[in-house]
Amino acid sequence: ALYEIENNPAPDSRLSRAECLAFLGRKREAVAIILQLPEQKRDDPDVLKSAALVFAVVGDRATALANVERALQKGVQPRWFLMPGYDSLRDDPEFQEIFRKAPGTLH
Fold it and tell me: What is the pLDDT of residues 30-44, one digit of tens each?
């Protein structure tokens, strides 16, 4: 997937590239892409969801949780955070609390 993204870039493939790099263990590069996003984009629900994934995969629990919480507040459906990339957060009591309080989840 990374090869395709790098050789056939879409207008804004940075989020997909960051996710791929995180899963490939290229943590520094993945995080750098997220941090280089313009300030106005950092509050976009899709950016928050991707940032949460990148930070979860690279092991930055606190930043991942902050992005999960903000993404949910911005209307990202809770089911997105059930994907395997978020497995490292699943048993975390803070994640469970954030998830429980999210709009659209069964309480």
Answer: 999 999 988 778 889
